[in-house]
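Issue 218. Parser rejects a valid record. Input:
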Amino acid sequence: MAFFNKMKDTFSQAGQSTVKMAKEFSETTRLNSEISEAETQINNLYLEIGYQIYVAHSADPLPEVAELIEKINVLHDKIDVNRAQIQAINAASHCPNCGAKIKPGMIFCSSCGTRLAEEQPQPEHKAEKTMFCANCGAPVAPDAAFCTSCGAPIT
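Output the parser choked on:
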């Protein structure tokens, strides 16, 4: 009988140990989740601070962030150029017979077969010439009156 009592005590201790480990694991998981959530909130606040600094100082950047603001401005310009190219690609006319979308260069409609009007030669679009500030060498928008990097007037 002592053998069974000893086994019972051993199983009881093992069960209590397992319950304790499960509680510790659960608490550790909960705390790690709270830490992760707090870190995510901090990173979002950092992003918001950065955006607020960009908005407030994009025209007259602080020296500490001038290079980063210029990189953002260049990326915004690139996005604008790409969007304009997408619009040009998607700027197709429509078939006068069925209304299907017609891409430049098509002679017949792919939906109804109607012969399309001869396409007039389109003038070539000149790529806008990139301008640079004479003072600091930073790229500037063609219609800019002042450099966004150093503030010098554009002549």
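Fixed in the parser; the record now loads. Strands lie at 93-94, 101-102, 131-132, 139-140.
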